[in-house]
Amino acid sequence: MLPQEQINLYIAEQPEWQRKMLVRLRQLIHSVDETVEENWRWNSPAFDHNGIMLGLHGFKTFVSVWFHKGALLKDPQKLFDKPEKDEEKGIRKIKLREGDAINEKAFMDLVKQAVKVNQSGAKLGDAKPARKALVVPPELEHCLKKDDQAWENWEKFNYSHKKEYVEWIVDAKQEETRKRRIAQALEMIRDGVGKEDKHKV
Question: Is the predicted pLDDT of residue 58 greater than 70, yes or no?
Answer without folding.
Answer: yes
